[in-house]
Amino acid sequence: MRDTLPDIGAFVALGDSFTEGVGDPYPDGTGHGGLGYRGWADRFAERLAADRPGLRYANLAVRGRLVGQVAADQVPLAVTMAPDLVSIAAGGNDLLRPRADPDVLAQTFDTMVTQLRAAGCEVLVFTGFDPHAFPLIRLIRGKVAAYNMHLRVIADRRDCRLVDLWSMRVLGDPREWCADRLHLGPDGHRRVALRACEVMGVSADADWRKPLPPRLSPEAVRARTAGWLAARRLDAHWAREYAVPWVGRRLRGASSGDDIAPKRPELLPL
Fold first, then answer.
1. Would you say 236 and 195 are in contact if contact means Cβ atoms under 8 Å apart?
2. What pLDDT sits at residue 1?
3. How far is CA 221 from the centre of its chain?
């Protein structure tokens, strides 16, 4: 792996809802120029641009995208843009499906990285999160771990930079996530951007490792006499509001990203 920071004048982000920024809306609710969500990639690009005025940035990520869709739709477009740096995070939507095979997904991911490296791009690879904090979703933890091992090997073999989300223990706190338990909240995206800065050697004004404050005071903990029941009610609410609609879309062959275009489809100054 290279220790020196490459000269980056153009950055393109690829992937799904994680890179689109779902869960991290701009304060005005519509975003700069109607972009809607900010997310780790916008935050990282902003810090990168502070060190490199004139940075050009495109974000082709769209919620719901599968690895094969990123490979078919986003990677070729990124290659034509000829950026200095490309980030790629994909696979989470695939792994939520019962028949997903981490070995097969990794083969497609390796092909994407190979194409980007052959085009002369620096590539920033993201592993998957550790889903241990949430009931039901933690059932795919083994598949995510297997997929991550492949991604680490790919990053090493193809001489890429790697952001290991699995090792970010602070993201195991449910407060870093949205109510749907699938998307990071604003502070989670902020911490991921800081981790990406650390990996790329970009200056940052905070530490992603900073612990969150205690969730409850001792008095509040003692006052929660129905904690288990409250947690089960939250699980039931989550199932009704998020899990059932997700299953419904799968049965219909639909995606949350249908009819949604990339928020920054062109490589333009930030």
1. no
2. 46
3. 33
Give me the torsion for CA of 76, 79, 80, 86, rounded to 10°. Answer: 120
Q: What is the pLDDT of residue 40?
A: 98
For residue 15, the cross-strand partners are 89
Position 75 confidence tier, pLDDT thresholds 50, 70, 90: very high
Reported as a single tens digit per residue, the pLDDT across 29-56 is: 554 445 589 999 999 999 999 999 999 9
Q: Which DSSP symbol is given to 243?
A: I
Residues sharing a CB contact under 8 Å with residue 77, sequence separation 6 or more, in sequence order: 60
**Furthest C-alpha separation in the chain:** 60
Q: What is the pLDDT of residues 87-130, one digit of tens each?
A: 999 999 999 998 999 999 999 999 999 999 999 999 999 999 99
What's the pTM?
A: 0.85
Please report, rounded to a whole number, the percentage of residues in the chain having pLDDT higher than 70: 79
SS3 state at 29: coil
Compute and round to an integer the Cα radius of gyration of the chain: 19
**150: CB partners within 8 A, 6+ apart:** 102, 103, 105, 106, 109, 110
Domains of the chain: 10-269 (3.40.50.1110)
Q: Return the DSSP state at 216.
A: S
Query: Which tokens in the block code for residue 237?
Result: 């609410």
Task: Residue 212: name the closest of 192, 236, 248, 188 by CA.
Answer: 188
Sign of the CA dihedral running 77, 79, 80, 85? positive
What are the φ and ψ backbone dihedral angles of 61, each rounded to 5 degrees? -70, 145
